[in-house]
Amino acid sequence: MSSVTPEAAALPGKYLTFSLAEENYGLEILKVQEIVGLLPVTRVPRMPSFVAGVVNLRGRVIPVVDLRLAFGLPEADMDERTCIIVVSVERAAGESAVMGVLVDEVSDVAALAADAIEATPEFGAAIDTSFIKGVGRAEERVLLLLDIDKALSESEIRSLERMNPPATPAEEVS
């Protein structure tokens, strides 16, 4: 019998899997808008180091976050496997925003049943794991299932909002 908590039991579904620093992660597929190869990134002055910059994605400028740096991992050289996952994130006011997350490599889409997902381990009160929804098992891999809405702190989100204001009604229609 599995020790799945009610919180973790709500997580079954499809996850886009990717790697950062040789570790495997998963994002809810419903949060993913698209995956694009590495595009030219324009750096923006005075942004935190984890903000790679902005890219022009078919006429729309979106901020790009280097998840390695946002998670405190060492910087890595980019190669032909490096890509940008374009995601929709929820803002504090219930609005959504589009941003890109730079990852080492996208693997596949994994369908995870409830019994393949465990609750996030407890590391003590001083360690924030709120951005991890759970830990999944897919074949021989262990996946850290990310809550992309919580992967960045409030102050980090505010710095991105300056780069990506909410869409106006006219922009949403076009």
Give a quick summary of the entry:
This protein is mainly β and about 170 residues long. It has four helices and eleven strands. The strands form two sheets. The protein has a six-stranded mixed sheet, with no helix packed on it. It has a five-stranded mixed sheet with strand order 3-6-7-5-4.
Helix content: 10-25%
Strand numbers in spatial order across the main sheet = 8-1-2-11-10-9
SS summary, helix count: 4
Low-confidence residue ranges: 1-10, 167-174
Tell the overall outline: globular
Strand elements, count: 11
Structure class: mainly beta
Share in β-strands: 35-45%
**What's the structural domain tally?**
1
CATH superfamily: CheA-289, Domain 4
Largest sheet: 6 strands, mixed
The first-level CATH class is given as Mainly Beta
The radius of gyration over CA amounts to: 16 Å
Order of helices and strands: HEEEEEHEEEEEEHH
| CATH architecture designation | Beta Barrel
Estimate the mean pLDDT confidence. Answer: 82
The separation of the N and C termini measures 51 Å
Write the CATH fold name.
OB fold (Dihydrolipoamide Acetyltransferase, E2P)
Question: What does this entry look like structurally?
Answer:
With 174 residues, the protein is mainly beta. It has one domain (6-165): Beta Barrel (OB fold (Dihydrolipoamide Acetyltransferase, E2P)), CATH 2.40.50.180. It contains 4 helices and 11 strands; from the N terminus they run αβββββαββββββαα. It has helices spanning 6-9, 67-70, 154-161, 169-173; strands spanning 13-20, 23-28, 32-37, 51-57, 60-66, 83-90, 96-103, 105-112, 117-118, 132-138, 141-146. The longest helix has 8 residues, at 154-161.
